[in-house]
Amino acid sequence: MAAVTVWIACLCRPDPGYGGWAWVRRLDGETGAAAIKGAAGGERRASGAKMSLSALAEALEGLSDLPADAAVTLKFLDPDLAGQLVTSDGDYATAEPEAWAAARAAVAARPVLELVPASPADAATGFLNAWAEFGLDTSKSRGSFKAAIPKPNLMKFPG
Fold first, then answer.
1. pLDDT tens-digit profile of 61-110?
2. DSSP codes, 23-86
């Protein structure tokens, strides 16, 4: 069975305000450009909750080329994310119902999914935060967008 590790990060300044997100995935046990993939994006008039849920949904949609039963380890920074995914009347579900529903659907489509809190001190976190910042900055001038992280940049990913 295929196994993959996915990292996500997001930010929003102010909250609500401009937001950005980023994700990177690496096939476990493999190296090289074919083993890694990632994207970043951003939106205007977004909340921190929406950016967290968007990062999750986008990252899991980025696994569409892998079998649905591939083992996925998802590392995330938002300390509230996992708890918010299991409650239909939580803050995220009530504040961002569309983003919450999309994230829940993406999670439900992955039967072998382990959510693991990431450490802010990890080098991977710095890389992802820089790309989430890029998403936030780009959304200021271009509005909502998403784009693949270029392979030369991904090859420097420390995760």
1. 999 999 999 999 999 999 999 999 888 889 999 999 999 999 999 999 99
2. EEEEETT--SGGGEEEEEEEEEEE-HHHHHHHHHHHHHHTTTTS-TT-EEEEEE--TTHHHHHT
| Distance, C-alpha 97 to centroid of its chain | 18
The amino acid sitting at 9 is A
Full-model pTM:
0.95
* 22 neighbors 135 (Cβ within 8 angstroms): yes
Cβ within 8 Å of residue 16, ≥6 positions away: 45, 46, 47, 48
Nearest to 8 by CA among 17, 20, 104, 156: 20
Query: What is the C-alpha to C-alpha distance for residues 32 and 5, in angstroms, rounded to an integer?
Result: 15
